[in-house]
Design brief:
Elements lengths: L6 H34 L8 H20 L3 E5 L2 E9 L2 E8 L7 E4 L8 E2 L2
Antiparallel strand pairs: 1-2, 2-3, 3-4, 4-5
């Protein structure tokens, strides 16, 4: 793990994470809709190829922001983020899933998402 967050540090970062996550979800949905229209040769109120490229660039910027702040992006749809951490002397990942409005879960490294447990 490159950076280890305390639970307090991770929760302090959550307002910025949520803002960027909300933006990512909107850009992702727009890109899917726009790509479908382009593939079908239809017009879209969202624009055309230049707008699609712009959305792709914005998604890339948002994903880079998460990584630059030490978060691990584990999924894009739904957005799944892990904050490397340590609990009781053991390395864990604080786990946030799109739709959650706070950081309340963790899992051991080897257990993955299926091993999520609530933070005390």
């Amino acid at each position: 793990m490159s950076r280890a967050f305390t639970v307090a540090q991770a929760r302090e970062l959550m307002p910025a994470v949520l803002a960027r996550a909300d933006e990512l979800v909107e850009a992702r949905a727009s890109l899917v809709e726009l790509r479908e229209a382009l593939a079908a040769g239809e017009r879209s109120a969202l624009g055309g190829l230049p707008e699609a490229k712009g959305l792709e660039a914005r998604l890339s910027e948002l994903l880079a922001w998460f990584a630059s702040h030490g978060l691990e992006v584990k999924g894009l749809a739904p957005l799944l983020l892990d904050f490397p951490s340590e609990l009781d002397g053991e390395p864990v990942l604080l786990c946030w899933l799109e739709g959650e409005r706070e950081l309340s879960w963790y899992h051991r490294l080897a257990h993955g998402f299926a091993g999520r447990r609530r933070l005390a």
